[in-house]
Amino acid sequence: MNPEIPRREFIKKTSGAVAGSSLAGVLAGCRTPSKQTTAAASTAASVIVASKAYAVGKDTIKIGLVGCGGRGSGNVREALLGYKDAVLISMGDIFEDELDRHLVALKGNTEINDRILVTKENCFVGFDAYKKVVDSGVDVVILATPPGFRSIHAKYVIEKNKHLFCEKPICTDAFGYRSFMATVAEAKRKGLGIGSGFCWRSNLAQRAVYQKVLAGEIGDIRTIYGTYNTGPARFKDVDPKWNPMEAQLRNWMHFTWLSGDHIVEQAIHNIDLTNWAMNNQMPVKCTAHGGRQIRPEQLVGHIFDHFSVVYEWENGAKGFLFCRQQLGCHSDNTEHIYGTKGTAHILLFNGVPYIQDATGKKVWKYDGDPKNPNMYVVEQQEFLTSIKEGKPRMDGEWLANSSMMGVMGRMAGYTGQEITWEDAINSKEQLVPNEADIRWDKAPAVPPLAIPGQTKFI
Asked: Is the domain of 247 the same as that of 345?
């Protein structure tokens, strides 16, 4: 039920075309081959040659990727599958091994490898890699870094007049939200597009049921109930050779400045579904419970493993969110919208959405395959097509607002206080350091685990 699973499967399947990640330096064409990998070069030659075969035309959309993990490389794959006149020309990541490993997988995918045109000159590593990707001659930048970096990177993308596809969420604090909203305004002024990684909005089954909800077919919305209950976030054993900054970056999901906690990084999908139902009308306030029951105190990181949040709108409607990352517990990922005339059941990974009237009678059911076409391909296809047609899509505002609703819920969970929307967006809390202070030898201090009722709202 975890949406990360198909992404991991993609990496597993596509990387099977090569001998293994030890070939990364050769296959990627980005590094000088080592003695160990030189002998394997001839094995990989067919992959490299295939990637050079595509002739770039004047109408070709050139893509640059910043953040080369599973979701970033997945976005590239889906963009090239969905839009045949697009190519990948540059990649950037904090870690060389991540860039190499995922470029191996992309070049090993026979469906798209003729359009993976990344050369060693266009592979960039380090905290400034994003700038080099943006400046490498691309038309569109895909941002799939840890969320803490996204508002910083997005600002530069738009400053340099590039279109932006940005994964969710776009911030981990209010400072990042305000920065991204300013970037959205600048993109609108320039006529640039911003596409969103909230993939469920590109699922045709969800679009069908939300169209009915927004048309009033279940009446006025009174309650929205969502769950994202799943297992723990992935964790990499800390190598003693890593310094504190690398240890945090390798396990970014476990640090709030990087991920926003799992309510912001993962359960944000359900928050966005709630925002969608409310047509981007922000809640006036929220309260929350949260804590860490299972994770031992000595574990790297300081995020919670469960939240329950109640959002309230000006008209009295309420949204309930329950999310949990605990091993061995019941998993559930659903959304239910209750109106004065009926109920819409948004079953996500568990089935086909349907609507019941006030008596409980099923009056509508989606009659297509909810998994076909692939929603990740659809979101990329539609975004790139909008650019080609000269009407670039603008998802920026609701992408930002849904992200901030997650941050608002975390604030309420960490502090135990009622948090208003105005409190949240005007918060002075800045989890992400200023860019000049983001460097290898200066990791942000890891705060103690938040204690509701003691941790202060800033």
From this structure: yes
| Whether 115 and 261 share a structural domain | no
The range of the structural domain enclosing residue 9 comes to 4-145
How confident is the model at residue 54, as a pLDDT?
58
H-helix or E-strand containing 245?
A: helix 244-250
- What tens digit of pLDDT does each residue of 356-401 get? 999 999 999 999 999 999 999 999 999 999 999 999 999 999 999 9
pLDDT at 351 over 50: yes
pTM: 0.86
Tell which residue, 148, 112, 109, 106, has the closest CA to residue 130: 148
- Residue pLDDT, tens place only, 412-446: 999 999 999 999 999 999 999 999 999 999 999 99
> Total structural domains in the chain?
2
**Is 76 part of a structural domain of the chain?**
yes
β-sheet with 342-346: strand ranges across: 362-365, 354-357, 342-346, 332-339, 221-230, 318-325, 306-312, 285-291, 419-420
Both 308 and 426 in one domain: the answer is yes
Regarding whether 260 and 403 lie in a shared domain, the answer is yes
Residue 458 lies in a domain: no
| Unique residue bearing structure tokens 């991920």 | 259
Q: What whole-number distance in Å separates Cα of residue 81 and Cα of residue 74?
A: 10
Amino acid making up residue 20: G
